[in-house]
């Protein structure tokens, strides 16, 4: 069965998309650790980072940079965590390789999992899309 991320990529499930290329998709995490928490996934469904062919890994890293810059600009902070949970012992829940870009703020003492409403999620996604488009 296709992963939840493949279902999002295929348009079978909704997502607040912020960037899409031929090889990758970036969208907001539905249970964000902070405002602007974004996932970047390759469209090729593989479970772990090392399974990606070298050209797909290179493309993914370039997209990660582009989306991270957009998240920084849109969310007004230069600080973020970049993570990839690779394997169940590392906390991976969806076995489709993906990276988290988690904005961090000076006033933020801890990460939370408070889910914003759908309107707020779309507002955040639009800000990030605009920042990415502006380069």
Report on the structure:
The protein is an alpha+beta fold. It has one domain (4-134): 2-Layer Sandwich (HIT family, subunit A). Helices cover 33% and strands 19% of the residues. The protein is built from three helices and five strands; from the N terminus they run αβββαββα. It has helices spanning 4-9, 54-75, 118-134; strands at 17-20, 24-28, 38-42, 79-83, 99-104. Strands 1-2-3-5-4 form a five-stranded antiparallel beta sheet. Strand 1 and strand 2 form a beta hairpin. It is globular, with a radius of gyration of 14 Å.
Contiguous low-pLDDT stretches (5 residues minimum) are none
Strand order of the largest sheet: 1-2-3-5-4
Return the CATH architecture: 2-Layer Sandwich
Q: How many helices does DSSP assign?
A: 3
Q: Main beta sheet, described?
A: 5 strands, antiparallel
Q: How many β-strand runs?
A: 5
Determine Rg (CA atoms, Å).
14 Å
Q: Which percent range describes the beta-strand content?
A: 15-25%
Secondary-structure-based class equals alpha+beta
State the shape. Answer: globular
Termini Cα gap: 36 Å
Q: Give the topology string: H per helix, E per strand.
A: HEEEHEEH
Q: Output mean pLDDT.
A: 96
- Kindly state the percentage of residues in helix: 25-40%
